[in-house]
Amino acid sequence: MKETEIKKIENVKVTDDFWRRRMDVIRDEVIPYQWEAINDRIPDAPASHAIQNFRIAAGETSGEFFGFVFQDSDVAKWLEAVAYSLESDPNPELEKTADQVIELIERAQQKNGYLNTYFTVKEPEGKWSNLRDRHEMYCAGHMIEAAVAYYQVTGKRKLLDIMCRFADHINAVFGKEENKIPGYDGHQEIELALVKLYQETGLKRYLKLSKYFIDERGQKPHFFDYEKEARNDDKKFWWNDEYGDYSYHQAHLPVREQKEAIGHAVRAMYMYTAMADLARETGDESLKEACETLWENVTQRQMYITGGVGSQDFGEAFSFDYDLPNATCYTETCASIGLVFWAKRMLGIEKNRKYADVMERALYNGTISGMDLDGKKFFYVNPLEVWPKASEKRKDKEHVKPIRQKWYSCACCPPNLARLISSIGHYIYSTDRNEVFVHLYMGNESELDIGGQKVQIVQETKYPWDEHVKLTLTPETSSEFTMAVRIPGWCEGAILKVNGNIVEIPSCLKNGYAYLTRMWEKGDEIELFLPMPIERIRANPKVRENAGKVALQRGPVVYCLEEVDNGTNLSSIRLPQDAKLQGTFEENLLEGIYIITAQAEQVDETEWNEELYKPIEHKTKPFPLKAIPYYSWCNRKPGEMIVWIAEN
Amino acid sequence: MKETEIKKIENVKVTDDFWRRRMDVIRDEVIPYQWEAINDRIPDAPASHAIQNFRIAAGETSGEFFGFVFQDSDVAKWLEAVAYSLESDPNPELEKTADQVIELIERAQQKNGYLNTYFTVKEPEGKWSNLRDRHEMYCAGHMIEAAVAYYQVTGKRKLLDIMCRFADHINAVFGKEENKIPGYDGHQEIELALVKLYQETGLKRYLKLSKYFIDERGQKPHFFDYEKEARNDDKKFWWNDEYGDYSYHQAHLPVREQKEAIGHAVRAMYMYTAMADLARETGDESLKEACETLWENVTQRQMYITGGVGSQDFGEAFSFDYDLPNATCYTETCASIGLVFWAKRMLGIEKNRKYADVMERALYNGTISGMDLDGKKFFYVNPLEVWPKASEKRKDKEHVKPIRQKWYSCACCPPNLARLISSIGHYIYSTDRNEVFVHLYMGNESELDIGGQKVQIVQETKYPWDEHVKLTLTPETSSEFTMAVRIPGWCEGAILKVNGNIVEIPSCLKNGYAYLTRMWEKGDEIELFLPMPIERIRANPKVRENAGKVALQRGPVVYCLEEVDNGTNLSSIRLPQDAKLQGTFEENLLEGIYIITAQAEQVDETEWNEELYKPIEHKTKPFPLKAIPYYSWCNRKPGEMIVWIAEN
């Protein structure tokens, strides 16, 4: 097995207040609820049938397939979340349930390795006939990810073996060789999963297959046309742009020629993640450059301040540079999660805080906003501005729900959040030979393998609320290695100390990481003070939507105004440029948050009666503004919400 | 024939610079082009087939019906525009062509009076089976309007007789009596047309039929359900809201119970117009109150500053109070035209400048913006903010075209504008016994019938650019009557003179009209000075979209910024509250317009590189702002446009 920094960091025990609370919710609420859901035992939720589909495919019960073509992926994502949950919180009963599901999956697998309940049950003759729309490999990819995670955590190989058999089958069916299908999936996912499978098994054929899928994508003659012709399908695809039918799936150009994020945002994120994986694993410079170009495009042109991506409902997709409407965005939870995946892989290519900054931005804002605090309801769309009446009355805002929803029939986001949060410990560190990179700040107790020896690291912090982080190191024996700690891009004036002595950050800073190379002794302490003044953030003036507005941010946390705190018509509030912004930690509000208050102004409506338009002076009255972290909105009385506040 | 103030004012000869130019364009460009279009002689335009459909229906040629179910209405609106054009500009050749079309229409009429080429040719058994969707009476209504206009102008009865026969047939088919269909049309139009037919013929049955349609609308059990059942249609209607399937057609409630404008905006405007007609003709107080309530709702809650209505693309419809997005509105040209019709009818109920103010607002802004200056291209959607790239790339802005289009296949707006502009002289005055109301200011030479005698009125003005209006009266003999001249609601400090002597306006002002009652002699002059400072107009703070923004208006003309004058990214411009606004008449720009310039500011982008978000001070640099009348936008190089400008 190949040693690599992407390899799972073992023994990271998250002790963090902020994240542990979310992990508990996933463990206690989300995973059990999702289990009930995929077993159709939630009375008022839409039927899932996901487990039942496997039973039917296994020949153990009769009945029809029910659900989306990608229904199997709900089981896969549940299993992956279970694996990560078992890693931090062993639970023999849950593990037994998972084992039973895995046995069921094995029984549903066909002799040749094929595994997909939709095609097995409903359309056996249709296998591999419509890669563009039918998600066969997407489901396979999620199950491979689950298999790798489950093996890493439990040491049990069964699901890994099942998925190796399926991957081998796919490898036998797809490729450029004669008698193979020269194609790739319409929903990228297997590409990144195959890299994980390669990393875990060391079997190069999985890496090669992933590379084949990525290299082949967007080549001419176009595979989607080839398979359309083969199945006598002459219908125009519903998404169509200057690139024709293909850009929804990022298959409009060979991936190395793609310069701008386009199409379905989740597909894009998963593909870029795999591209970064492959660039690192194969040393492919042109692929690395493509990743970097796409990264710049997304994060400098098409990303919301919350780390959300996908500016439009149509196609749940990217639109174009600087088009970032707050009230009609899509910004799917899954897309922000995908951005986290991609950022992690970019850190695998290059240790540069710009990747960790975006990862952190998405983690503290646009991903966890997708779940309410008690883990019972979910946003798929994470808007930056909500007027509930508009969501109710306007078709073009129908997708923007003013309150989180229970389990959906297309249940992609909740299990995706479950697997991300359960595995949050994997995002804190990475190691590279005798270097340890500290990407994220959250309390944990870990044992890392650095240059062949074990080093215990205890990280203590009240991040993201508190400015202080302390890392205590305990190497087996004194040894020289490097601790590279990230100085976040949002932070001015950070102070770094080793054993109480200030280290001049500029002297050791490279790409945003402070490199501390020395003989580390047991009990050595690294302390970091990350000043977190409340910042007024402006958007690039090319973002027309945010002209004249500011967003409030403190540390990595983006704030918003809610109606429950600020009354109705949030657009009538003005934040004077010289208003003092005050921060207070409110222990009992929304599980403990740092709030921001200010003496702001509000348009004085007293001279307005029933007129709609008139020449009148702009008059304001004092207004006490109260902002809360964006992720925590919509956990009290539903109402309006804005992130971008008008300035005076 | 009943004498009424709605009756056509004869002998109004428009001499006005502003409007005469538009009438010429309609006469020289639009009417001939539309004639070619409905005869399928425009090479690059979508096929119309409208005349051919009549030939087929008349049995004079073979072939299939082609086009929308309402294709006949294109011919009707063309004929109506021709009639009004002949009124101001006699043209024997054009009249001969129209006569031939009318003869063709007669030959296409069925023996029982029925007239609709779609059902005659394509679906004879389907007549009157789907009033909700099939527009049979909508087409009838437009042809009735054409018939009345053509008779009034030319004195030729043929089309009037044809349409009386059809109206009589409809009267025999529809009603509450047994063996009649208890229904009404899905697209209101015949209701207002029947009132015109009644006013012209004096035949009460047409008024009664109109009243029946209006009274029956929205009653339970619902007619749309009745006819759905009759044709075994169990499909859900595509528009659905808290009122079910009916509000798209304003058939969700009996009309007197409707308090808010809802559904398809053009349908709404035509219905409210008919309601006002009926309220006046029948003295029905409850109907009058309903009109007033709806008027307040539309003009105080759901109308754009341009006189546009219809806040959303979906259903080309109203959305809800104060929801007035600038970049995703529908604001169809036809809906603004409908608002003009309705305003004129409200003036028939009550002489109150609030109706004329709105009529004027729509006329100088949201209607004529629908046509380019040379009459060759048209907007259906009249947005208040355009970012061409967003129109190209975003599905939810696809309906907002950044440039006017040629003749559409659904060609409702161009002929609607043609008939409105050709008949603009009919909107200037109304008479009520021995009172003359001057609603609009535009140059004209007219002969009005006042209390039994002819009075010549010459109105001279360079409105809307110039503040001075002069009316010279020439009664046959000296006689006492009232000249009631409107003091526009936008105007502060108007000065009124009779024969050079100032009249104290407050002393004679009633509902916005200055009543001048006296013995009028030949050569008496009324002069009006309407100060037109450039105004910064604000929207009611409940209009979230326009928070922190102002629109510029001078007289009745609303202004906008275009990219061709102000560069790209118009949202980066700030108009300081104390910036001096300067007006200049530019003879050679856009056929002569008054422009507004100001020393404004623009966000200084020099400190922005590739970042998307950062804490940075708001810095601006001086920016010379140039605004042009909204109606004239998109007549030069296409690009961005905004009406609402950010303030500093």
Automatic annotation (TrEMBL), chains A, B:
SUPFAM superfamilies: Six-hairpin glycosidases
Limits of the Non-reducing end beta-L-arabinofuranosidase-like GH127 middle domain: 436-532
Superkingdom of this protein's organism: Bacteria
InterPro entries listed in its UniProt record: 6-hairpin_glycosidase_sf (IPR008928), Beta-AFase-like (IPR049174), Beta-AFase-like_GH127_C (IPR049049), Beta-AFase-like_GH127_cat (IPR012878), Beta-AFase-like_GH127_middle (IPR049046)
Domain Non-reducing end beta-L-arabinofuranosidase-like GH127 C-terminal: residue ranges: 535-645
Domain Non-reducing end beta-L-arabinofuranosidase-like GH127 catalytic residues, every copy: 11-425
Name of the protein in its database record: DUF1680 family protein
Natural source organism: Rossellomorea pakistanensis
